[in-house]
Write a structure and sequence with these properties.
mainly alpha, 2 domains, two-stranded antiparallel ribbon, 2 helices, elongated
């Protein structure tokens, strides 16, 4: 049985592979493998939204965005990412 990794765990795993590859002698094949690895995250998980909140506490769900763990100040904005309190 296989388990789907979450995006950050996959990106970390891929970055470790890329770091190792970059220490190897430069070849056309190495450069190609690095580019394929970099593109694999978007192919598997889809394009990441451009306006990703800085706090990382926002999760996209089918019917909108769930804000988990945001800490709001008195003005109604998240102290981590600046998102306004959803009403």
């Amino acid at each position: 049985m296989s388990i789907m990794m979450d995006r950050p765990a996959y990106e970390q795993m891929i970055q470790e592979d890329i770091d190792w590859l970059m220490k190897q002698p430069r070849t056309l094949e190495r450069d190609h493998v690095v580019e394929v690895l970099k593109a694999s995250t978007d192919r598997i998980y889809g394009k990441e939204p451009v306006n990703v909140p800085k706090c990382g506490n926002h999760k996209d769900v089918p019917f909108g965005v769930v804000r988990i763990g945001c800490e709001y100040d008195k003005a109604g904005f998240c102290v981590h990412c600046g998102e306004e309190i959803p009403f």
